[in-house]
Amino acid sequence: MPLQVVEPKRLYRQIAEQLRALIKAGEFVPGSRLPPERDLATQLGVSRPSVREALIALEVEGRVEVRMGSGIYVTGAAPRAAVAASAFGPFEIIRARQLVEAELAAVAARQRTPATLKRLRAAVKAMEDDIARGVMPIRGDREFHVALAEASDNAALVRVVTDLFDERNNPLFEQLGRHFENARSWRAAVAEHRAVLRAVSDGAAAAARRAMREHLQQSHDRFAAARIDEEATPEGRRAA
């Protein structure tokens, strides 16, 4: 039998595999509650964001149910197809974007044009309008980040930024957003976009780099800091 290529597994997939095996073995029976994220992270020796990605993967598969304000419960339902091995975790996507887009914001500040600034302002306005209508402001958000990338006049970098942003559409990222994105978090994101816009408009490359890095760090932290076992407020539910 020929040797097979060994592929490194993302950490969240390793965690999900352990939990999946325990569920199949009956260690966690249908209707039972899994240990809290913090306890799982301690027992596994990993970060809470990694545990959260694993739990979200199991939820996408239908093996567990996230009940905001209560915890994670085993469903007992017939599982759906497993999350694709190629799916990136939401937190690694955000970290990758932070590395790339912080520098692109600096480039945009150095190479700003009236056309770029007009696009950025319109993108922020579109975000604000969508939030006011109770709609997720993805359209304006995407336009803002793509416009910054296009200011570099580098098609390869534009593709990288576009592809990374569109990973928001993968099942893990979408499911995470359903639980933790809300009008409040999006208003904070708009303020962060405005800080980037001010720096780019001023031609302040270092300030633009900092503002973009801070925006994506805050995005990461908003997902990581939210507690599954805290009671969700009406505002904390994602717009349809």
Describe the structure.
The protein has 240 residues and is mainly alpha-helical. It has 2 domains: 11-74, Winged helix-like DNA-binding domain superfamily/Winged helix DNA-binding domain (Arc Repressor Mutant, subunit A, Orthogonal Bundle); 90-236, Four Helix Bundle (Hemerythrin (Met), subunit A) (Up-down Bundle), CATH 1.20.120. It has 10 helices and 2 strands. It has a two-stranded antiparallel ribbon with strand order 1-2. Helix 4 (90-110) runs antiparallel to helix 7 and helix 9 packs antiparallel against helix 10 (205-225). The longest helix has 21 residues, at 90-110. The N and C termini lie far apart (51 Å).
Index terms:
single chain, 240 residues, mainly alpha, Arc Repressor Mutant, subunit A, Four Helix Bundle (Hemerythrin (Met), subunit A), two-stranded antiparallel sheet, 2 strands, disordered C terminus
Lay out the secondary structure.
Elements: H1 11-24, H2 37-44, H3 48-60, E1 64-67, E2 71-74, H4 90-110, H5 114-132, H6 138-150, H7 155-166, H8 171-180, H9 183-202, H10 205-225
Antiparallel strand pairs: 1-2
Helix pairs in contact: 1-3, 2-3, 3-8, 4-6, 4-7, 4-9, 4-10, 5-6, 5-9, 6-7, 9-10
State the gist of this model.
This protein has about 240 residues and is mainly α. The protein has 10 helices and 2 strands.
